[in-house]
Specification:
2 strands; two-stranded parallel ribbon; flat
Length: 71
């Protein structure tokens, strides 16, 4: 399972990463500090055939997909 945590606050990202990794040691947990950083990670995942399932409270997955095709 690959998970990406996106938050502009490093402390929030770190706390959630630690909590998730403690409960799920086999997960690959990525972090991003904002939308642009997230898109870079998603583009890299597409190149390496290591998909990341996207769920966002602020952006629809289809919106993120359209951003990836633009960049």
């Amino acid at each position: 399972t690959r998970v990406m945590i996106v938050d502009d606050e490093k402390e929030n990202r770190d706390a959630l990463r630690i909590a998730l990794s403690d409960q799920n040691p086999d997960w690959d947990i990525l972090t991003a500090c904002g939308e642009n950083d997230c898109i870079v990670h998603l583009q890299e995942a597409c190149k390496t055939n290591k998909p990341i399932d996207v769920e966002s409270v602020r952006k629809q997955g289809i919106h993120l997909q359209s951003l990836l095709t633009i960049m």
